[in-house]
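Narrative of accomplishments. A recurring question from our advisory board has been how the design workflow behaves on a single, concrete structure rather than in aggregate. To address it, we present the structure tokens for one chain from the evaluation set, followed by the sequence designed for it. No filtering or post-editing was applied between the two.
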């Protein structure tokens, strides 16, 4: 008789262990090991190899002409931009975000617009009743959209229902953590259940050509809950970001097998739902009549779209003996420490007795390394209380030697700044980049920039 084995699986990363332990050896999470039943191991299965008895595969050449995948437009331009042009038939898309950020609202708007255009759409909610989804659709002005609704958590019931008729063009599952497969033991949301439910739904999408969209919960760290393998199984991963206290929302693509990554779509939350923002720079720029020290405009590049944001710095001098604070919102705190170290070591500026506060206006999260120069300029301006010109932008990457390194797509950044009325740019010596209507100030080292800002030399 086959021996029934038991294993312990981490609910954070999916690592398996034969014994229970308080801390996962792979990801370091505490109290996440849960006992699950492993497949029965028989002596025949352990000795049998897999070199014979299978189906022979047909191997194809790499240079065979292949048509581009057919895309389904969602009717929302910013969502199509993040997806790379629309939903691909037979693809699986995973969208995650904080609770209440607007994931269900965005998908319901897309479902209503697609259904009105003709294709069949099925919306399955595992968290809300059908009446709740219907009431939200009425608030969004989509009450007459021919979307078929269902409230279910059993994957078997969902696939049985869909198998009775023609496959829909779009299937939305809200959310994958609530789905349950009766082939496995365990509550919905466990690693094995999420993996099994997602695998069955993705298999259905690949076989029928249905575009599948899965909603995923996120942990307190902002990562999609459940096994990391879930993000590897799907074709596209989107993160819906933003603060509920702010009006804007950013849809960011971090994986896309059918398009570019790091593309974003920008939305604004309104009474009638999520509205598209065609000019994101208008959300993240502070309009003021006079110059303020510590404020520098940075032309960030999000995917293929340049977005102008304002970097704000505040430097507060402390009495001797006090421990200074370093607070950062919207940027990497480790990179701020590097910029401060370079300013002290290479430029002779002292921040050791000052508290430093750095903020990206509007709540946008900036990861572009070209923000180094804008942050350094904001810190110098705040320390010396010398404001920069209101029509100036700054960008460039900083090396530990104090050298300013050129960044990619400088022409796009300068073109966007000129279009929004800016007149000058502080940047590294970046080849033959030119921009009409902009006065370019080029610097080889950070020390040259500091001398320029402080009027030295």
């Amino acid at each position: 008789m086959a021996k029934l084995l038991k294993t312990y699986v981490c609910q954070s990363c999916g690592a398996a262990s034969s014994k229970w332990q308080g801390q996962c050896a792979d990801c370091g999470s505490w109290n996440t090991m849960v006992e699950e039943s492993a497949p029965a191991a028989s002596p025949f299965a352990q000795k049998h190899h897999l070199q014979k008895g299978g189906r022979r595969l047909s191997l194809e050449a790499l240079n065979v002409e292949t048509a581009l995948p057919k895309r389904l437009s969602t009717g929302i331009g910013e969502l199509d931009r993040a997806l790379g042009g629309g939903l691909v038939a037979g693809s699986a898309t995973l969208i995650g975000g904080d609770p209440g950020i607007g994931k269900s609202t965005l998908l319901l708007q897309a479902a209503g617009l697609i259904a009105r255009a003709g294709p069949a759409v099925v919306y399955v909610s595992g968290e809300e009743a059908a009446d709740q989804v219907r009431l939200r659709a009425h608030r969004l002005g989509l009450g007459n959209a021919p979307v078929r609704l269902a409230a279910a958590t059993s994957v078997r019931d969902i696939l049985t229902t869909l198998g009775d008729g023609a496959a829909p063009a779009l299937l939305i599952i809200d959310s994958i953590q609530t789905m349950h497969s009766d082939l496995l033991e365990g509550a919905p949301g466990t690693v094995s259940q999420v993996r099994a439910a997602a695998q069955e739904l993705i298999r259905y999408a690949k076989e029928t050509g249905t575009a599948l969209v899965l909603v995923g919960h996120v942990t307190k760290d902002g990562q999609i809950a459940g096994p990391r393998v879930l993000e590897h199984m799907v074709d596209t991963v989107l993160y819906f970001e933003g603060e509920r206290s702010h009006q804007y929302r950013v849809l960011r693509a971090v994986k896309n097998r059918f398009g570019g990554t790091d593309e974003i779509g920008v939305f604004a939350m309104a009474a009638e739902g999520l509205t598209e923002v065609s000019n994101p720079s208008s959300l993240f720029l502070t309009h003021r009549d006079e110059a303020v020290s510590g404020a520098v405009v940075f032309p960030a590049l999000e995917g293929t779209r340049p977005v102008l944001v304002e970097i704000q710095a505040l430097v507060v001098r402390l009495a001797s003996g006090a421990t200074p604070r370093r607070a950062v919102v919207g940027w990497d705190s480790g990179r701020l420490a590097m910029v401060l170290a370079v300013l002290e070591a290479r430029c002779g500026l002292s921040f050791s007795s000052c508290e430093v506060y750095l903020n990206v206006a509007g709540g946008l999260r900036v990861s572009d390394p070209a923000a180094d120069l804008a942050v350094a300029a904001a810190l110098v301006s705040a320390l010396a209380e010398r404001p920069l010109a209101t029509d100036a932008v700054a960008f460039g990457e900083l090396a530990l030697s104090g050298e300013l390194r050129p960044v990619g797509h400088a022409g796009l950044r300068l073109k966007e700044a000129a279009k929004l009325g800016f007149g000058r740019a502080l940047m590294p010596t970046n080849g033959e980049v030119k921009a009409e209507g902009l006065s370019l100030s080029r610097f080889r080292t950070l020390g040259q920039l500091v001398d320029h800002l402080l009027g030295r030399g």
